[in-house]
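Go through this chain.

——
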Amino acid sequence: MVISEFKYKPMKVERGYNNRTLYINLSDMKIASKPVSQTMKDTFTGGRGFNLWLLWNALPRNRVVKWDDPENEVCIACGPLGGTPVYPGSGKSIAVAISPLTDTVVDSNVGGYFGPFLKFAGWDALEVQGKAKSEVVIFIDGDEGKVQIEDASQLSSESHRVTEALARKYGDNISVVSSGPGAEHARFGCLNSSWYDPGRKMHRYKQAGRGGIGTVLRNKKIRAIAVRYSGKISVETNGPAHPELVKQVGTAHNQEIRQLDPKQNEMAIVGTTHLVPIMNDFDLLPTNNFRFGNHPDGEKLGREVYRRKFHKGFDGCWMGCALACAHGVKDFELKTGPYKGQKVFVNGPEYETIAGVGSNCGIFDADYVIEMNYYCDIYGLDTISLGTAMAFAMECYEMRLIDKKVTGFLDFRFGNKEAALELVHQMARGEGFGAVVGQGIRRMKKIFAQKYGADPKIMQDIGMEAKGLEFSEYVTKESLAQQGGYGLALKGPQHDEAWLIFSDMVRNEMPTFEQKAENLHWFPMFRTWFGLNGLCKLPWNDVIPEDNKKTKEPAKIMGHVENYVKFFYAVTGKKVTVDDIILMSERVYNFQRIFNLRMGFGTHEHDTIPYRAVGPVTKEEYESHAERYDKQLKEKFDYDPTGKSTEEKIMVLRKHREAEYEKLKDAVYKRRGWNVNGVPTLQKVKSLGIDFPDVVELLQKQT
């Protein structure tokens, strides 16, 4: 049954833009079109920038909106370069909302066809506000030029079921955004974004996992958002200013990937699983709640295992991407849960899932990881937050901060894969200890302290969250720059802003605080640019030119950066330099920092991280690398550890490492043009052209 309908005239994309956005309010079933001005494009570019601007203007000015208030929105956009079928990694969508985990604005990116289809169907961005009285599906029909809100009370909320039902109804030329029953009960619900795999004749999924946007979607009673576009997709579909140049730069980058990926990471064969042995070798693979960075059984979760398990075939989540890293396992027989005994196709796993629900929970069983991956997808759960939250709960259990009465008699120790799977099934039902872990680490710490008397100080040290968001899966103890990359990230500790571990820890390319600060400026800005334009970052730095080491700044892979400059000009017709790219991102990055400020965050105190991200918390951790830590105390901090107890050495090391982190924060704030409290200055926002009256008023209140 159609509840509300809006008709529009589909238009051709011009230089990467459709020049309008779609607004839907589920409280009053209003559907409307909004124009995109040139000023909006010049200031916010697209993608994440458009989403932030739409959400900023949609929220009431007189109060702070909570994640489950009707005024919160789910905003999804692509970007001007997104949807280009000859350039690798140009199928990204970016979602934005007020997060159930952090209580402030969060962004999350995802592959699949939704963003490009949305643009080709007529819209540069989608914003959904309000809350429906009963379950609905939003259908955006780019073939017939209509938007419908339909009753969905008879549809399952599980992603695979709702997508299959909509494909039967509307055909396979659709992309569906959905979540699942787990997102209804946990705060870290993900968005599943689908694409049709013609080789396997099935719909597949990628995830916008971070920050609980799937939880917001389900709170609004949205079963799914589907977009249909059946037109032929070519370079010209995105309306580029210079289509031949688009073909030239895209073909060149794809050819390089086809030539070099087999020699470097084999992502077209093993995907991001190639990272597992590398992280394990360099002491970076999170193990037992980030206590350690490697494990003798790490290879059981690595690339060679998944080389045998992944189904062969083309695995690009957007057409024309030679990297094709979105692998899956075919005919996997499930051993637990509602589909026990059934053979299914599992999308993944990728590195973050393997490290999160696998090694970080002390579980080194590839089949367990695959099963957990499947259920997290159909339940709509972020595997990063889930894995890190489970690892925290496991350590609390082993430390006897909580007991079996708290866990519902689950033996929730590290390595217990049966208990971990049972917990996820509980989470999907909203029952038992699963419902508690589904609240995320920040809230678990409060629950364990207030209800069960657990020590708040030790939980603060080992609870791997910052700003309310669980850490993604890299051990940062020996990389001060990566500690800053996590602690200073706008949405919380996610590596998509800055991944500097190798440059800092392995290659020692940034020994001074000033050099670290410079990199913690440039890399987040350049990575932000991908989210403005609808691009995946993997083609930039996971396959690199053979002569890259000989370049002046090898960490930046400037050969690829220059190619992106050409790509932007080829599509938009706007000539830019590398500095212009950074400036585009600075506008949006600073605006998002100010958005956090508006929500009651965005200052120095909120950039802290748990001590385990900085150094060893427990005696066991210190002694596992005693030689390393003793040497640092003696040579770096002029402290003789001879004859001192481990507890005393931990305390001294902690004092110095925490001081270093604070010094780094000050250096980064200065480089970014922020004051000592981490707030952008009026001079900075004026230079960026984001000195809107409400922004200026907000900043003036901070002085």
